[in-house]
Amino acid sequence: MKFSASTVLLAAALGVSAHPHGAVHNHIHRDTNLEVRDQFVKNVKPTSTVFQTVTVPAVNALNNVPTSSSSASVAVPATTTSSKAAATTTASSSSGTIGGSAPWTDDFCTGTSKRGTAEQNAFSGNTGTTYGCNLKFVEESAAKNYQYISVLENAASEKQVCACFLKSGPDGKAFTGFWKGNQVLDFELAPGAKKYLAVQAGTIGGCSCGVGSLPLTALGQISGVWLELEYGSELNGGFSGADASSLVPEDNGNPIQGLTLTTENPTLVSGHEKKSIIYPNGDGCNAFPKGTNAADGWGFNIANSQKGGDSIRLHAKWGTTGTLADCPNVTEADGKNWRQTRA
């Protein structure tokens, strides 16, 4: 899908992602060839709902955004936390394995949901009865009680400033959750530190970090290397997915750092490669590096992860090292090779 002269889909964490240069990236999810990529299919909007329209001047403003020196970066003071976030995290001595078994804790949100139809919710993602209550940090000792956990780690020698966000913003509109002021959680990771992010079923969102400050585009879009995730998809039969993506920082001239995604239950991940990696030089391994805006099929597709099913224990490490030579030279049945050279 591309921009038209009078409408635009605002940049998205998952599903359809719009970029200032006019390319729209359908990369969450994923390949529609079920024989190759199991049952997880591309996240497309239900036909019963209508995309938000943006005026021609707004489209022109997007297309005229400079891609390098004008990109913005905002530092988050060490004493600053969001209303839903914890402060700076200290290093953990954990072995890194969470484990756990059903029945799972589901204590995220209370009250009556004000969200729309099932189709709308599946496309926009769970945003909680109170916006953002479907994402929360938990203690390491409690992580095993939750079905969906993302362990967010700092492998760098410097502090990371980070944010986690939803695909939809507080206004309920898709593609507005990952702009400055709309993120759910702001936090910092000291060198070697980790945080345990519990996620409620049906959530579509992501997290991003930057060394020393949270990178933003000139328009205020969160612009570090992204972890993109969808857990217990309502649209895709309970399947889940995740990937590493550098598309937003690459398209806006922001810095790139390494991001490595792994999982504690790789037997549930389809395909050959059980990792999704952006390397520090911008190359990728089963990920979305520069030049893959129009691609699908990369990252994790995770089976049997519907609500109440198997657990997801995803580990996301920012500041990792490595090169493309570390990625297995594997070509799948559809001709895709896991080694992705930065375009």
UniProtKB/TrEMBL annotation:
InterPro entries: Allergen_Asp_f_4
Signal peptide: 1-18
Keywords of this entry: Signal
GO cellular component: extracellular region
GO molecular function, one term: IgE binding
Organism superkingdom: Eukaryota
PANTHER family assigned: PUTATIVE (AFU_ORTHOLOGUE AFUA_3G02940)-RELATED (PTHR42039:SF1)
Protein name: Allergen Asp f 4
Protein source organism: Clonostachys byssicola
